[in-house]
Amino acid sequence: MDKPRIFVLGIDGGSWNLIDRFISNGSLPNFKKLKEKGAWGNLISSLPPVTYPAWKCYSTGKNPAKFGVFAWVGIDFGKNRMEVYDSRDFKSKEIWDYLGEAGYSCGVINMPSTFPPKKINGFMVGDILSHMNMVFTYPPGLKKELIRSGYKIRPDYEFTLGFFEKALPEFKKTIKSQFDLALKKMPSTDFMHLTIFHTDQAQHFLWNFMDDEKSPYKGYLEEVWKEMDLNLGRLLKKLPKDTYLIIMSDHGFCMQKNVFYINKWLENEGYLVSKKDPVSLLSRLGINKERILIAVNALGAKGIIKSILPKKILEFYRRVPTKQNNIGVMGATASINWEKSKVISVGEGPIYINKNVVRTKKEYNQIRSELIKKLEGIKSPLTNGKAIKKVYKKEDIYSGEFYEKAPDLLALWEEGCEIRGYITQQKSCWAYDNQWKAHHKREGIFAFYGGG
Ligand SMILES: [Zn+2]
């Protein structure tokens, strides 16, 4: 039997609504072929439908309370701080661990939640948190080969203001280099997993331009997807006859209509108390995240700079406010009054009751009931529609050994609404957008192809 036997192509943010649009205008002949000759359908993502925990739900086959990470960011109420996760925080075996034990060789490339990489029977290349000057491969020696062959962890330029033209070829190069590696390693691997992450990033920043006749960036997102299609074509050509190809995303995508700053709402409703982080005063001096990003992007080396920043400086950077004086949730620790806040969210849906303040079961239950009622009924003044589709209690969606760590409530947004965890000086908890022009929806993609 030729190798690999299974190839899983993960497309971060892959969504049929977008793919079908580009298939119908002839831009994606290989995706068209895949749909015509394979089986396909909607994939229903995890709760919340976000990269962390979605990819790990796939690779472990478990709900997040069985591996201990519920979103990009969590809360440590023992230390009163926001926690940012990496691969070491996920506590569970994955499909490649089981396959490895059974003697199959596995290759895992760029799946979110794989940095630092771990030992498997085969090789692992770390995700977007990796940096070229760190050990981001298992075995460590593989890194040299990757550098030699031009592997790119990320584009040198992002789709931030003023750098769109430079970012597009960089995105394409990154995608191609990751396919190159997977294709090269295919003959020695039984089970291959490759995630392309930058489709998600491109969609967040470019979606709105697709229908803007006047925009010079109108065709950019289509260009990114044409690159995906080109590489899918290379893969289909090289795939051995008896190999199964599985294509899946972690969640789908749709146009964003509004942003709900949930921590601001909690503050306005009296559940959360914020305080002034001295770092937030930087905005008065004209120093904000956007300006720093533009300066760093101008050097064309965001990843390199990030990789040489000591952790302390990175933590400091996270506390720097945006232009609108918003503090991102990763840097929100110093902006929250932990002694007085009863409820805190990390954005994207998870909501935590602070049991250091809410001490009785009665109050806990009362707050949860109130929040469910209020949030499910809330209307966005910007769209006049519902913002929150449903609020789940933890006991309804989580079970497992990390259950205690799970958020007490999980709010699932209505399509088109993004829930942000900002701590903000603005009075309103609503905004039309906030850099991102499109956001996740729960229906992603799944396709099955081949097998002789
Ligand atoms: Zn995303």
Largest sheet: 8 strands, mixed
How many extended strands?
A: 21
Structural class of the secondary structure composition? alpha/beta
As for the CATH topology of the largest domain, it is Alkaline Phosphatase, subunit A
Please state roughly what percent of the residues sit in beta strands, choosing from under 5%, 5-15%, 15-25%, 25-35%, 35-45% or over 45%: 15-25%
Low-confidence stretches: none
CATH class of the largest domain: Alpha Beta
Describe, in plain words, how this protein is organized in 3D.
By secondary structure, this protein is an alpha/beta fold. It has three domains: 260 residues, Alkaline Phosphatase, subunit A (3-Layer(aba) Sandwich); 118 residues, 2-Layer Sandwich (Gyrase A, domain 2); 50 residues, no CATH class. Helix content is 33%, strand content 20%. It contains 14 helices and 21 strands. Strands 2-21-9-1-8-5-6-7 form an eight-stranded mixed beta sheet, sandwiched between helices. Helix 6 packs parallel to helix 8 and helix 7 packs antiparallel against helix 8. The chain is globular and about 60 Å long. The N and C termini lie close together (11 Å). The relative contact order is 0.19. Zinc ion (ZN) binds next to helix 7.
